[in-house]
């Protein structure tokens, strides 16, 4: 059996989040996150379960049920999934630029296209 606090700590570390960052994402203090992880406390507001599920991209039922041991992906797109995809694209672009396989002209064309897409 995995407790709520164990799940929060495990998921937070997998996502490389600090307690402060997770708290800011879901609207609570880092002390609250600490209390969940260490003191065995639970969210007082049910809406926090959905915010946590969105932050971790998992289903609410995983967080609410101590018997569930597998964190299944959230079927609904979360507000954080777009940011995650953007980071992945930036990481891929940085790797492409660093590889030295693109000319400066190609890099300029790429950046112009990204800027155009953003402005649209």
From TrEMBL:
Keywords: DNA-binding
MF terms (GO), sorted A to Z: DNA binding
SUPFAM superfamilies from the UniProt entry: lambda repressor-like DNA-binding domains
HTH cro/C1-type domain residues: 8-63
InterPro entries: Cro/C1-type_HTH, Lambda_DNA-bd_dom_sf
Keyword Cytoplasm tagged: no
Protein's name according to its UniProt entry: Helix-turn-helix transcriptional regulator
């Amino acid at each position: 059996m995995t407790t709520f606090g164990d799940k929060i700590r495990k998921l937070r570390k997998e996502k490389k989040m600090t307690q402060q960052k997770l708290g800011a994402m879901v609207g609570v203090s880092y002390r609250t996150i600490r209390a969940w992880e260490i003191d065995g406390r639970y969210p007082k507001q049910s809406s926090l379960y959905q915010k946590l599920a969105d932050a971790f991209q998992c289903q609410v039922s995983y967080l609410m049920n101590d018997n569930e041991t597998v964190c299944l992906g959230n079927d609904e797109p979360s507000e954080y999934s777009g940011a995650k995809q953007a980071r992945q694209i930036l990481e891929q672009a940085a790797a492409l630029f660093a590889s030295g396989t693109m000319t400066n002209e190609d890099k300029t064309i790429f950046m112009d296209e990204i800027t155009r897409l953003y402005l649209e």
